[in-house]
Design goal:
Layout: E1 2-4, H1 17-36, H2 38-50, H3 54-82, H4 85-101, H5 108-121, H6 125-136, H7 139-171, H8 173-182, H9 185-194, H10 203-211, H11 217-221, H12 227-257, H13 262-292, H14 297-312, H15 315-318, H16 324-352, H17 358-387, H18 391-411, E2 419-421
Antiparallel strand pairs: 1-2
Helix pairs in contact: 1-4, 1-6, 1-7, 2-7, 2-8, 2-12, 3-5, 3-17, 4-5, 4-8, 4-9, 6-7, 6-17, 7-8, 7-13, 7-16, 12-13, 12-16, 12-17, 12-18, 13-14, 13-16, 14-16, 14-18, 17-18
Length: 430
């Protein structure tokens, strides 16, 4: 069975209300990543209070990704089928509740349980945001729009990295989790009031209906049969392996191995993600400019991805240099490289898919990426525990980046037609 992409309703792409939606997507991502990063910021202090070693912290930091990766495809399918409004609201409520509940447990089992709950809730934002941009922004604006909502991630990381250590030292890590969790309530209330703007008989609802082929769950799973989907999944695994190694392990690495104090840690955690904000939007918009000038969309996105992943290879020398400040700046450069990758990886998935499967395909992409999130903290923690440092772990990250680049170029050709075949015996673009 071949499902052609329906002719989209372009009315929403001319509506100023799409900028309101983009503002919500950006601030939603701010809370998503600020609250996701709370455990990594608190981990060095929790280690002392709860008697946890590096291996235990590595396992705990990976637990979020067990449920998060599995939630991606179901969340994407629900969004493709029912729209972003209420699905996003349910996910947001679940994950903010989980952050608040992290203040309660004192055992590994309890802490893992709330991390699993956090992962279920945060399965929603990425496929929802990708579907929203695909629906309601014209092709020439999607890079900038994607870069903007992804900048919310980095601002959230920078904010929690700057404020978290000081708050924990002053009030304790349990109060820190309560405050961080409750801070998102204002966003959720505003979102619930505002979703009527695009869910009740106006241009946004029309856009949703015009592109919403009712894809069955069985058909969504058949996307796995296509090598292009496998390519974005494996490539994003490599990208996110390194990203989540940096995101989840860097505070522990800088505190335990580099002996950073709270003030130094706050700067080292916040500066890289603040710098990424200056790169991530131009990285998406530069690709838009080349596409408008006639360059192939798929080739442009893969080229920016390659540049960013090669820059992320700075993680390798960061483990070898003796000077702590130099190591921190090399890690900041690696984070910035992944900031160039981020918008173009999501736009590559949009470029190879018709709109009515964008959220599902994005969920598959993020599933692959967050398998890296499962593996990276656990493997890195185990290596650090066994060897006494992170040198081997950072070298493995460099090799994984090169493998990811190969997946993008070998599995995803530049010419992708407009129709997606979904059949039991094959799943190819024809």
């Amino acid at each position: 069975m071949v499902l052609p992409a329906r002719a989209p309703d372009r009315t929403a792409e001319r509506s100023p209300r799409r900028w309101i939606l983009l503002g919500f997507l950006t601030t939603g991502m701010f809370f998503c990543y600020a609250q996701r990063q709370t455990l990594a910021i608190a981990a060095p202090y929790m280690m002392k209070d709860l008697g946890l070693n590096n291996a235990a912290i590595g396992l705990l930091l990976s637990a979020f990704f067990w449920s998060y990766s599995l939630a991606q495809v179901p969340a994407g399918w629900l969004i493709d089928r029912y729209g972003i409004g209420r699905i996003y609201a349910v996910g947001f409520f679940i994950w903010t509740s989980a952050v608040t509940l992290t203040s309660i447990p004192s055992t590994m089992a309890g802490l893992i349980a709330v991390q699993l709950l956090l992962g279920i809730g945060q399965g929603v934002p990425f496929p929802a945001s990708a579907r929203a941009v695909a629906n309601w922004f014209p092709a020439g604006e999607r890079g900038g729009a994607t870069g903007l909502y992804l900048s919310g991630n980095r601002l959230g990381q920078a904010a929690i990295g700057a404020l978290g250590p000081t708050m924990i030292v002053s009030y304790g890590w349990r109060i820190f989790f309560i405050v961080a969790g409750l801070a998102g309530i204002t966003w959720l209330v505003a979102w619930l009031f505002s979703i009527r703007l695009w869910e009740s008989g106006n241009t946004f609802a029309a856009a949703q209906k015009s592109t919403n082929t009712k894809l069955s769950l069985r058909e969504s799973l058949q996307l796995w049969h296509d090598r292009r989907i496998v390519g974005v999944c494996l490539g994003y695994f490599a990208c996110d392996y390194v990203f989540f190694l940096l995101l989840r392990w860097m505070p522990v690495y800088l505190t335990v191995e580099r002996k950073f104090g709270p003030r130094e840690l706050a700067l080292a955690n916040s500066i890289p993600f603040a710098l990424v904000v200056l790169l991530i939007i131009p990285a998406g918009m530069a690709g838009d400019l080349l596409v408008r000038q006639g360059w192939n969309d798929v080739t442009v996105r893969k080229s920016f991805i390659t540049l960013g992943m090669l820059t992320a290879g700075l993680i390798v020398p960061a483990a070898f240099v003796r000077d702590n400040a130099t190591s921190a700046w090399l890690l900041a450069g690696a984070v910035c490289g992944l900031g160039v990758v981020a918008p173009n990886a999501w736009l590559l998935t949009q470029a190879i898919c018709p709109r009515h499967v964008v959220a599902t395909a994005s969920g598959i992409q993020n599933f692959g990426g967050n398998l890296g999130g499962i593996v990276a903290p656990a493997v890195t923690g185990l290596i650090a525990h066994q060897t006494g440092n992170s040198i081997l772990a950072f070298n493995i990250a460099g090799v994984i980046l090169l493998c990811g680049i190969a997946c993008y170029w070998l599995l995803i050709p530049k010419n992708v037609p407009d129709r997606l075949a979904l059949a039991s015996d094959r799943g190819v673009f024809e």
